[in-house]
Amino acid sequence: MQFPDYRPRRLRRTENMRRLIRETTLTLDDLVYPMFVVPGRKIKKEISSMVGNYHYSVDMLTDECKRIRDMGIPAVILFGIPERKDEVASEAYSEKGIVQRALRALKQEVPGLALITDVCLCEYTSHGHCGIVKDGEVLNDESLETIAATAVSHARAGADMVAPSDMMDGRVGAIREALDEDDFEHIPIMSYAAKYASAFYGPFREAAESAPQFGDRRGYQMDPANSDEAIREVTLDVQEGADIIMVKPALPYLDIVRRVREEFDLPVAAYNVSGEFAMIKAAAQKGWIDGERAMMECLISIKRAGADIILTYFAPEVAKLLGCRR
């Protein structure tokens, strides 16, 4: 039997050999850890559908963020659950809002950790939608002022970056203009540029208490069937001033991550969302898969597709694993 001169298995025989030719490497520098902050004190309550992730009060959040920083994770993104919700999301942009209080505490007590904030209204509205609602309709232009005011309030409180996730048309431009007018020209925007109306957000909506009270979000989040539309959405956000562009979710949309990577010369982020996390955790608990290997395989696939930044609930576990390998 004739064999080719080149035998690929020669370079797969040992772990060190595989390391030498590895094309894609996941590092802690790639990761952002999403965290949930709630009112109160001494609160650290596990989220039932997201094993190992918690609701933290501000005092407990600062302690956990010190641990996150010391593990080598460069950044967190904060989601807030307010003390009260109303029709106009007034707690979203309040100086005394939960995210604003958390930012001030973290800036003082956890230097060296990059603080990103999710900018959206769904956690703060009584109806659970990402914009202002009138007569059952989510209003686009009328929502932009509130969204921009929320981003500015985060910058004033100490955010290093803001990340609008609402999918209202024109929100990146509105935020950029508002930040610049308030002397925050240096604050970057990481836009949820191609955010799909996905079934994989379920655990997050429990964690953030943000499920819509009527209808759904398909009127403003993207149709999972569409790819070209994602490029149009990203193009608009880039034109409006986005500094980083995000695809969400990550795993069902790796083709979108790849297209965005190839068509735009900006950093690309991808959100490894709660449902993706929960599926691996649930299957691992059942003994159906090797959870650690599945975690790393999924995250490496996101980076291989072209993501520079990965938002993931796995971040502390990855940090422990990579630390053990040093």
Structure explained in plain terms:
By secondary structure, the chain is of the alpha/beta class. 40% of the residues lie in helices and 17% in strands. A hairpin with a 2-residue loop joins strand 6 (132-134) and strand 7 (137-139). The longest helix is centred in the middle third of the chain and has 17 residues, at 141-157.
Name the poorly predicted regions. none
CATH secondary-structure class: Alpha Beta
Roughly how much helix do the residues carry, as a percent range? 25-40%
What would you say the CATH architecture is?
A: Alpha-Beta Barrel
Mean pLDDT: 94
Principal-axis shape equals: globular
Largest sheet: 10 strands, mixed
Number of domains: 1
End-to-end gap: 43 Å
Instruction: Could you tell me the CATH topology label.
Output: TIM Barrel
Number of strands: 12
C-alpha Rg, in Å?
Answer: 20 Å
Features:
TIM Barrel, 326 residues, 11 helices, 12 strands, alpha/beta, globular, 40% helix, two-stranded antiparallel ribbon
Protein topology:
Elements: H1 15-21, E1 31-38, E2 44-46, E3 54-57, H2 58-71, E4 75-80, H3 98-109, E5 114-119, E6 132-134, E7 137-139, H4 141-157, E8 161-164, H5 171-181, E9 190-195, H6 202-208, H7 228-240, E10 244-248, H8 254-263, E11 268-272, H9 274-285, H10 291-305, E12 309-312, H11 315-325
Parallel strand pairs: 1-3, 1-4, 1-12, 4-5, 5-8, 9-10, 10-11, 11-12
Antiparallel strand pairs: 2-3, 6-7
Helix pairs in contact: 2-3, 3-4, 4-5, 9-10
Short précis:
With 326 residues, the chain is α/β, with parallel strands linked by helices.
